[in-house]
């Protein structure tokens, strides 16, 4: 019926009059809309819910107002592309008056997972301005930092243990490896890998410095890095691979000496673990370890930095993304060219790191998935369930200017100093009543003694 009159956007007042007559509106209402208020097709497409509560539509009889509302919804639903071209909606399936009530007939839609979680809503909460709530939650960022620090300590200690368990090179020669058997050893390659990683880490620090949601990024980076390295501790312990290259002179360190206690042995291992932790496990920092092959920690660091840099920088900076991927791939090549790891170590490290990153961000960017399977999420991703409980949407790549960064840092320092001062004042106030009460007690005792002496 509407097609016989041509595109809705081209309708004149007469075309609109003809269409409304066929829909059953009274002639007085049609005359009031089409001739007194010059309603045409473009006006119908531009109407929204608020317009139906205002003049002139508000002056229609209830029956005609309801009929006109239904007609408007129907026409807007059939002309989504036209609405998009007019700039009235951002995309063709955006909520407007024609699908705002149809797509979600109830305020919240509940679905059950295989664990029977039907109490969680799918639709995320948004702030007053319509944007998803993205609170910084600095406490969670601090906890995630403590988590990754603890994991790196555990990793350093495990690296000391696996070094003492490294197989004898004479009895267990290097395993056959397609890449290592066909690429000659390059002595300086491993140092180049660590220089590449340092450069990527510098880029990531710059992203964190200027990103508006830096605390969310920090929390995710620390949580994912700590989880991957904790998994690496397990794989290093359960299986000890032979040394991948003859150039690596790896011998177990014998800490036990005659008369030495187990406490002395533990103290020496902790001391060696501190050296590894302080140098971040890098050879350019003077750290040399053996036995920590499955899987490659250097590949984990390179891949994690690459994915975070490309995820949290704008898509139009394609040259930065290309450079990040090239540094990741060249860093992996340098690891293998230095014959510091088997090819399987590097492959497993890249796969595990990339999959955990993608799983984490898929769940965080689709809150419906997390809420639908909340029990399973809490079981398999406990850190994710805690750290992402307050994030209710995709984190946009928004950045502060240097002036805003300086202002935020100044405000942070002021807030920290104020909180510290309040805490100190609270401690003094807490001790003051005790001291005054003790003085009163002493004074009363002295008065009683004086009376007795009299």
Automatic annotation (TrEMBL):
List the GO terms this entry assigns under cellular component, sorted alphabetically: endoplasmic reticulum membrane; Golgi membrane; plasma membrane
Q: Where is the composition biased (Basic and acidic residues)?
A: 109-120
* One GO process term, biological-process aspect: ceramide biosynthetic process
Q: Among its keywords, does the record have Membrane?
A: yes
Localization of this protein:
Membrane
Q: Which organism is it from?
A: Sitophilus oryzae
Q: Where are the transmembrane segments?
A: 141-162, 188-209, 221-243, 293-309, 316-336, 342-360
**Region Disordered, annotated ranges:** 109-133
The similarity comment for this entry is: Belongs to the sphingomyelin synthase family.
Chief location of this protein within or outside the cell: membrane
Q: Which residues form the signal peptide?
A: none
Keyword Lipid metabolism in annotation: yes
Gene Ontology terms, MF aspect: ceramide cholinephosphotransferase activity; sphingomyelin synthase activity
Protein name per the record: Sphingomyelin synthase-related 1-like
